[in-house]
Amino acid sequence: MNNFFYPSPTLEGSTEVKTLRIARHCQCSRSSCGCKGLHPRPGQQVEIVLEIEDAEFSEAGTACECGHSWKSHGALNTLVDAEIERRAKVALRADEFLERKSWKISHLQILKSTVY
Question: Which superkingdom, per the lineage (predicted)?
Answer without folding.
Answer: Eukaryota
